[in-house]
């Protein structure tokens, strides 16, 4: 199998997680961010992740990839129910996390941005939606204060006992990439339970956090 990804992309992180959690082998291929040809050839549009299965089929939605791997290889691990409170938390937190993370991704040394043209492609696309990155970065202090308060709320929502049994939920698959995205931001106040959960999931899913390159 081959999984085409961008390292920074939270949707790609979702698809990567299930391979680590289940110890299923897969070739991970990071594409330049401006490579439109490869994903368009595979699934008809410029979007990642894309999984090419052992049968040669292409799957292009992150949660479809997650469910396919969980149901096809070994014993399913996504057997816990979704957590509606955490799902609601994510809906609110997303609007704070991405304005912090996206302009920082644009200046970081991710493989998909190693070529100047690929980095500028990303900047042009995202600034067209979010506005100039310097303006977003100037709002850092305000947004960090807001998200730190939100993280305190999440701290009270998280329970860790299910992770001890090797069982997970789709909420876990959605939450980890969101918090990993936030790990590239300096000055975040991580409550103890959130920090422990995030680092445990990083180890279990075999996906690095970005705190070592935080800006």
From TrEMBL:
GO cellular component: cytosol
A family per Pfam: GST_N_3
GST N-terminal domain sequence ranges: 1-77
NCBIfam families membership: GRXB, PRK10387.1
Name of the protein described by the UniProt record: Glutaredoxin, GrxB family
Taxonomic lineage from the root: Bacteria, Pseudomonadati, Pseudomonadota, Gammaproteobacteria, Enterobacterales
């Amino acid at each position: 199998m081959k999984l085409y990804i961008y390292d920074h992309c939270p949707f790609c992180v979702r698809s990567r997680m299930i391979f680590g959690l289940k110890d299923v082998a897969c070739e991970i291929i990071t594409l330049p961010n401006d490579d439109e040809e490869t994903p368009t050839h595979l699934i008809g549009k410029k979007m990642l992740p894309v999984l090419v299965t052992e049968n040669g089929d292409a799957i292009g939605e992150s949660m479809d990839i997650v469910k396919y791997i969980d149901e096809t290889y070994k014993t399913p691990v996504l057997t816990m129910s979704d957590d509606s409170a955490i799902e609601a938390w994510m809906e609110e937190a997303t609007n704070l996390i991405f304005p912090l993370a996206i302009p920082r991704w644009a200046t970081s040394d991710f493989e998909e941005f190693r070529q100047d043209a690929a980095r500028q492609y990303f900047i042009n696309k995202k600034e067209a939606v979010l506005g100039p990155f310097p303006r977003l970065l100037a709002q850092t202090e305000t947004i960090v204060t807001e998200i730190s308060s939100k993280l305190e709320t999440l701290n009270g929502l998280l329970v860790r006992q299910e992770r001890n049994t090797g069982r997970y939920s789709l909420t876990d698959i959605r939450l980890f990439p969101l918090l990993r995205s936030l790990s590239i931001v300096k000055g975040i106040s991580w409550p103890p339970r959130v920090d422990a959960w995030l680092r445990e999931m990083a180890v279990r899913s075999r996906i690095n956090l970005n705190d070592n390159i935080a800006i």
